[in-house]
Design a protein that fits this description.
Elements lengths: L3 H18 L1 H6 L6 H18 L8 H30 L6 H19 L1 H4 L20 H27 L2 H25 L8 H17 L11 H7 L4 E5 L4 E4 L1 H7 L10 H4 L4 H9 L3 E7 L2 E13 L5 E10 L1 H42 L2 H32 L5 E4 H15 L4 E5 L5 E4 L3 H14 L7 E8 L3 E8 L6 H9 L12 H12 L2 E7 L2 E9 L2
């Protein structure tokens, strides 16, 4: 049967080997947060386990002296390595030159004291007491101070992890909880030995458990691949200003973007909103009431537009604690809106006045020429009149689109049967050569936008205007179900060109595909705003356009 000493040696050596294995994935991911600290921890755990193994047998003083020096190096690597690992993970410590300079300086001092102990006997006892003895039996304090310092670093890191577990969720909480659980076994076993509760230092067994846990975290839980980003860091990195305000109107916190907006560098916490945003009195009133919406301020000599989003923070019993206000900058968007509005006004004036007036003149003069001329010249005048009519129609439809965009309609009750009947009467006068027919109920009330009449008018007009059949015909059929009302407009014309349908399906013009008119754009806009749907069945024998309006 294996003796406890033999099992102790085997476990210690196993801990040394397994701890070194953590170095491999850490080196592969050395550019990831936490990798550097993990390498230090793995090396420290391996050195500690190697030092523990020979202490089960009598050793000469020089060997005990060497083991104690090994413990000093292992302790520094473990303490600082664990703090760096956790600090990077929780984003509380940046492992820069200052951090490593502090760790290196501490390591140099204690290691020098340990190595030169035979000269001054300030670090170990004069007979090089073994670390296997209880902590408080050591006669001199320097080694005790060193051990307590390392415990302090490890416990500080554990505190950061515990806080992170309480404040975070999902993958980040899993990572923090796993790291916290990994350090408990070696820490607990080492404390039991230092207090004299166990005769053998089974800390290496704890390192075996820790190594397996960290190995699982790295290989299965993506500890080094899944980079943690805390809420505070995300808030600091946001380009949009964010301010937290309590129920008394005092600033609790503000990210750098908000402090830049208010020109406040420090001392901003617990000040009133009025003091924090002193240059913007209108903004102060909005923040006090927590009213969402857009607001414009002048900052740095230029106008800046913001969209305010307010989120309430409630405590127990849904009692209000604070408000978090996010300033989403929409300066460029507002500028673009102003430019588009100006462009719309210019185009509207040009289409309504200049172009339309000129077209009326062109049409009137060519109608006069059509009366006075004969033969080829008369046909040219007739073609010009037709072109002017089409352009005037496009101008009217474009104006209809503009009015539709500018309007703020609300759903109302529309009698589709009466609406279709009125449209057909108008188009019978406009297109006397087209045979219009219908199948309509006596009445068909439906809740929809009033502009549905505009969509129906365009579809009937297109069916009649572009119908080149010998005997052009257009039929409108209205059918009802419990769920919807369907209006179908069928013609016997040549069908809608594939090019026109392609433009409609893509929702935009391309360099090779252009729509032949704006009629379908008007229809699609109305259909989208009203919550209805539009479908086409088209071939060389004709086209059927069907509008389906759901019942409310």
């Amino acid at each position: 049967m294996l003796s406890p000493q033999f099992r102790f040696v085997v476990i210690s050596l196993l801990g040394a080997v397994l701890s070194l294995l953590v170095v491999i994935p850490a080196l592969r991911n050395r550019d990831k947060p936490g990798a550097t600290g993990l390498i230090m921890v793995a090396l420290g755990a391996s050195l500690f386990s190697l030092g523990v193994a020979p202490l089960t047998t009598p050793l000469p003083d020089w060997a005990v002296y060497a083991v104690n020096n090994l413990y000093v190096a292992a302790g520094v690597l473990l303490g600082f390595g664990w703090l760096v690992t956790v600090g990077e993970h929780t984003e509380t410590i940046v492992p820069d030159r200052r951090v490593f300079a502090a760790g290196g300086s501490y390591f140099t001092i204690v290691q020098t004291l340990a190595l030169t102990d035979p000269l001054h006997h300030l670090f170990f006892s004069p007979i090089y007491l073994r670390q296997s003895e209880p902590l408080f039996v050591l006669p001199l304090p320097l080694n005790i101070v060193h051990i307590l310092c390392m415990y302090g670093l490890i416990l500080a890191a554990c505190g950061l992890l515990f806080s992170d577990v309480l404040e975070t969720t999902d993958a980040r909480r899993t990572q923090s909880g796993l790291l916290l659980a990994c350090i408990v076994p070696p820490l607990a076993l080492n404390v039991l030995h230092l207090l004299g509760i166990t005769s053998l230092n089974w800390t290496a067994l704890g390192f075996v458990v820790m190594t397996l846990g960290i190995g699982w975290a790295v290989l299965r839980a993506d500890f080094l691949d899944l980079v943690s980003v805390s809420r505070s860091r995300a808030l600091r990195s946001m380009s949009d200003p964010v301010v937290a305000i309590d129920t008394e109107g005092r600033v609790i916190d503000a990210n750098p973007a908000a402090r830049d907006l208010s020109d406040v560098d420090s001392g901003y916490q617990n000040v009133t909103v009025g003091s924090f945003f002193q240059p913007f009195p209108d903004l102060v009133e909005r923040l006090k009431t927590g009213t969402e919406g857009t607001i414009a301020v002048t900052h740095g000599g230029r106008r800046r537009d913001f969209s305010l989003t307010v989120s309430e923070i409630n405590g127990r019993g849904d009692s209000p604690l604070a408000r978090v206000i996010v300033f989403r900058e929409v300066t460029q968007l507002k500028q673009r809106e102003r430019e588009l509005d100006l462009l719309s006004q210019v185009q509207s004036r040009v289409l309504r006045h200049n172009i339309r007036n000129e077209l009326d003149i062109i049409k009137a003069q060519n109608e006069q020429l059509l009366v006075e001329l004969e033969g080829r010249r008369a046909r040219l005048a007739e073609t010009t009149v037709s072109s002017a009519d089409r352009l005037l129609s496009i101008s009217s439809k474009t104006r209809a689109v503009e009015q539709l965009i500018e309007s703020d309609e609300s759903p109302t009750t529309v009698d589709l049967a009466a609406t279709v009947e009125q449209l057909l009467e108008t188009h019978r006068e406009t297109y006397p050569e087209v045979a219009f027919s219908d199948r309509l109920p006596n009445s068909c009330p439906v809740e929809t936008l009033p502009s549905i009449r505009l969509a129906l008018n365009n579809l009937v007009e297109n069916a009649a205007e572009h119908n080149t059949a010998a005997d052009p015909a257009v039929e409108v059929v209205l059918t009802e179900t419990d769920d919807e009302v369907a209006v179908s407009i069928t013609d016997n014309g040549p069908g809608i060109p594939e090019q026109e349908l392609a433009v409609r399906d893509q929702g935009r013009e391309t360099s090779l595909e252009h729509g032949i008119g704006v009629g379908l754009w008007v229809v699609d806009s109305v259909i989208e705003r009203s919550g209805a749907s539009l479908s086409f069945e088209s071939d060389t024998g004709g086209t059927t356009a069907t509008i389906r309006i759901p019942r409310q």
